[in-house]
Amino acid sequence: MLKNRVLLLLVAVGLAAAAGLAFVTHAPNRLLSGQAVSWAIVLGAGRWMALLPALPLVVGPFLPQSRAVHLVLAVSAAALAASLLWLAGDVAIRLADTATPSARTSFGGAFWLIEAMAALAAADALQRGISNPAARITIGAVLILPILAVIGGGAIDQLSIMKEYANRRSVFATAVATHLAIVGATLLPTLGIGLPLGVLLDRRARLRRPVFAVLNIIQTIPSIALFGLLIAPLAGLVAFAPLLGRIGISGIGATPAIIALTLYSLLPIVRSTTAGLEQVPGSVVDAATGMGMTPAQIFRRVEVPLALPVVVAGLRVTVVQAVGLTAVAALIGAGGLGAIIFQGLNGSAIDLVLLGVVPLVAIAITADIALKLAVTMLKMRSG
Amino acid sequence: MRRWLRDPLIWTGIALVALVVFMPALKPVFALLFPDQDRPLFEQDSFINLTLSHIGLVAASSAISVLVGVSLALFVTRPSGREFRPLVETVVATGQTFPPVAVLAIAVPLIGFGAMPALIALALYGLLPVTEATVAAIEQVPAGAREAARGIGMTPAGRLRQIELPLAAPVILAGIRTSVIINIGTAAIASTVGAKTLGLPIIIGLSGFNTAYVVQGALVVGLLAVVTDLAFDRLGSMLDRWKRDDVVASA
């Protein structure tokens, strides 16, 4: 009778959240915590029809486990996620008509939990229904489109998080651009130092222990401490050589951020480069030597292609880590999405915090998925 | 005697305790290093208090992480829980792409400011590496060892306690190490949401342009992380040695 206990658990958690927590909350202004808006108001006047995609999910645990069922469940979960977002935006529009302009409608705990359950249900259905990881990621990307359409179409513009966005449109754009620029600027020295160092450690096994010991200790130091420890020496350096200050180097801001992020990024890149080269079978190298290839040719045509999937897997760890650490770098004045988050935390403005957190998480997850896809494709190419 | 002197765990440990206890005595040194500061030493709270509170927060959250993380991993590696394994793996993999700052910041709107959201955020985030490592550790227990245990008539509970957990222990410990080290760093950032930790002098120093405060907080929390990492390293090699002796003894 019961065929899918995982989906049953997700549905149960979603229903419990819907019963026990607020879907959206409404407050007189952005700093007060809101009152829950009842489901009767949210779903009134025929809007309950927006919940129809939940129906297949509720009966899903008892359906036979076929590919078609899994696909239907994945699509339903994605549709439910989009329609819940639309419902929240819709109730915000209706409450905005009667209330004062400073009134705010925000997402409640039930919204976040049900959205999370829907995302997990979609992921689980895709995992059960589709075995090819590249196809799974592609379908997953398509399933996100309705959510983007709801946001892009202006349906949630009256929600508090979007009002925070409307008030800070240019600040937000600058923050995202700065964030990505810092991550990008970190990758240059990271790859420039990390890749050659990784190759060197593959060739000189004796150096591995001391180098990895140092990189490990750096990785251990809390980010906020490393950022802080770089301020004084850099400020001293600039005071000593004012020319450095004129080209934009200073104790606070992007310079210490990029230095610290590079130090953190070295470990995953160096480790994966060395590991990638190490796992190239000796017999393959021997065969290439036998064919008369020079060491440089072997490196370029044999070792690099075979090591690449492992190196890109290390790059994935590096990028995801750097995206997160850049948020902390806002504390030393580097800007980026962290600046919005900490501004919100300082002012107890929860929706401002979310305006920083949501894109931050979205960037991290996108980078993670894109680089995972790259690894999968590289592995398929090299067999 | 020589070996004792060369042990990095011992001298970094001594350096940490000395720095925390004798920080007030270093005031003239910081006054010399930062001549522009009127207040060269963070004195709003003692470093002993901040360190103990920091350790307390990390210990409490890590204890929850280990308890829940190991139980969860054991559940999904049993026949009855196997169906939930892909779900748990998805949550663990996706959860780890969430930046720790984001988890901390999300906890505030749900729970409020203070030590509680920090504790819950740290416990949740710390759960992920522990679960991941435990699943991997149980998975790599040789099938032969399991079969042999079944062959001599051990119950599933006995197999878990006497075969699987001891063989998996070093990898589980590595996961706990990752979790604790991440939590030490995240706990420092947690002072931005109102938890009393070693991040406090850093945050106050950064917002008040007092680099001396920043250096003091950063040195102590950096040393704390390094000492903890070295201690886990030691614990790991002790576990390895104990496991080897155990195997030799039973052979």
TrEMBL record, chain A:
CDD domains attached to this UniProt entry: TM_PBP2 (cd06261)
Keyword entries, A-Z: Membrane, Transmembrane, Transmembrane helix, Transport
Pfam families: BPD_transp_1
GO CC annotations on file: plasma membrane
Top-level taxon in the UniProt lineage: Bacteria
Gene3D superfamilies documented for this protein: MetI-like
BP GO annotations: glycine betaine transport; transmembrane transport
Location in the cell: Cell membrane
InterPro entries with a match to the protein in the record: ABC_transp_perm/SBD, MetI-like, MetI-like_sf
Membrane topology summary: Multi-pass membrane protein
Transmembrane regions: 38-59, 71-89, 109-126, 138-156, 176-201, 213-241, 247-267, 322-342, 348-371
PANTHER family, alphabetized: GLYCINE BETAINE UPTAKE SYSTEM PERMEASE PROTEIN YEHY (PTHR30177:SF30), GLYCINE BETAINE/L-PROLINE TRANSPORT SYSTEM PERMEASE PROTEIN PROW (PTHR30177)
Family according to the record: Belongs to the binding-protein-dependent transport system permease family.
The protein, known as: Osmoprotectant transport system permease protein
TrEMBL record, chain B:
Transmembrane spans: 55-77, 98-125, 213-232
Lineage: superkingdom: Bacteria
GO annotation, cellular component aspect: plasma membrane
Primary location group: membrane
Pfam families: BPD_transp_1 (PF00528)
InterPro entries in UniProt: ABC_transp_perm/SBD, MetI-like, MetI-like_sf
Keyword vocabulary terms for this entry: Membrane, Transmembrane, Transmembrane helix, Transport
Keyword Zinc-finger attached: no
GO biological process, one term: glycine betaine transport
Compartments, record wording: Cell membrane
Gene3D superfamilies for this protein: MetI-like (1.10.3720.10)
Membrane topology: Multi-pass membrane protein
Domain ABC transmembrane type-1 residue range list: 51-232
Similarity comment text for this entry: Belongs to the binding-protein-dependent transport system permease family.
Protein name (record): Osmoprotectant transport system permease protein
Organism: Kaistia soli DSM 19436
Source taxonomy: Bacteria, Pseudomonadati, Pseudomonadota, Alphaproteobacteria, Hyphomicrobiales
